[in-house]
Write the structure tokens for this entry.
Amino acid sequence: MKKNRLKFVLALARTHNSIFDAIGRDIQGYGFTVSEFGVLEFLYHTGEQSVQKIAEKILVTSGTITYVIDKLQKQGLVLRKQCETDKRVYFVALTPEGEETISRIFPLHEAFLNELLSGVDEELIKAGLND
């Protein structure tokens, strides 16, 4: 690998770490872990989902998602219910308190992200959304 390419990879890694550290601090300011916030935000935008689908979308393991959902359920922010047709499947939805909480803090977090990434070229952002 040429030296400039290695330097570029290192710069990308530092940028990634810096951005995600800042995002993590912002989310912790609302009293949540990144995984907890991810669950709330995903449910806020998509409605009730299976536990498996949530784990896939927020990129956590099945063991981690169970722990996270348990914590959110104890806080009264989500509820979990068993599928009527397949007893192995559970669905998770926001409670009214969960809906109120995430609808209040998500716009603040979104504004933080917009400010954090204000210097990033819009075309570069669009290019990264090809999924």
